[in-house]
Amino acid sequence: MSNIKCQMANINSLKIALVHDYLKEFGGAERVLMALHEIWPEAPIYTIFCKKASSSAKIFKEAKIIESWFAKLPFCDRLMSPFRFLIPLIWKSFDFSQFDLVISSASWAVTKGFLPSSRLGGITARQHGGVEVCYCHTPPRYLYGYETSRSWKTSVFVRIYAAVVNHFMRMYDFKQSQKVTYFIANSREVQQRIKKFYRRESVVINPPVDLPKFTIHNSKVDYFLTGGRLEKPKNFDLIIKACNKLKIPLKIYGAGSQENYLKSISGPTIDFLGRVSDEEKFFLMAEAIAFIVMAEDEDFGITPVEAMACGTPVIACRGGGYKETVIEGKTGVFVEKATEESLISKLQDFKASGFKPEDCRKQAERFAKKRFKKEMKTLVEKYA
């Protein structure tokens, strides 16, 4: 018992900083950051910029946010992608020498490698400049051939520019990854990417999922559901085309750059709901026949877990993080290929009555925020 108390006193005495790409929208990465902030509320949050009046700015209004010099530029949120080559200078402008422990939440902006000698680990690392724990949502997708929501293929000049910049950014990303003391991956899928691209080992801690508090029920309404960020990698277009051909009702919530295009290809059975609150989303999930997700290489995928928490089975593309959350035949089914034809075949054979809401809920509870906090605290106390 005395050893445990000593360890807790040790972690509580450390100066801790949280680092996050940028605060613009409130998605899965920001939910992780919020959980980290709840564990260590006194730790300042360093970020490239925090877009005023955004959902993230409102949610983190009580936190101590420290922005970079880039945040002072007009339209900084729009400039971030084309000016990504400035990322090394942006992160270098922060001084983390005063901190014993840096916990980075990394995906897009090479948010890692802040402490020069952190690979030493534990007490030795603190003696030489601190410990860094990197919670990796994924190595930057745009650097390693994974589809992203932004298109750089609009012209030959842009393609050449992107190829040159991304080449040097990959070199920078690898260099920074070697400075990290310990990696935490958000899924086994991402763990494999960390091993492949960084040649580093990692521990998997799945991200926190907010579970609805209402009691699940067996009554379903005659519609399928999908939604989230309406971006190209999510393959909403093939979901719509499949439902168009079968003339089955599909509800879509959320917003994104693909929204107008998706509306243009939708038939009379497709209903766009726009942005909805978490309460409305959970209600929609609870009444749906099934929740459909068709991204081919999802890093983790929170929405299918939310649907299962509402007692609703999932129809998912067999790939990425979906393979780690959906239990085939018990909480959902897999579509072998992300094609319109494969999804149509699965929809025609799908029977919601073959799935028990309580099984779906039980599986979702494995990913609750309480579990995430416990695992993160235990691991950080061990590493620090």
Automatic annotation (TrEMBL):
Which organism's genome codes for this protein?
A: Candidatus Shapirobacteria bacterium CG09_land_8_20_14_0_10_39_12
* InterPro entries cross-referenced by the UniProt entry: Glyco_trans_1, Glycosyltransferase_grp1
Q: Pfam families given for it?
A: Glycos_transf_1 (PF00534)
Domain Glycosyl transferase family as annotated: residue spans: 217-366
How is this protein named in the record? Glycosyl transferase
Q: Which GO terms describe its molecular function?
A: glycosyltransferase activity
Record's keyword terms, sorted: Transferase
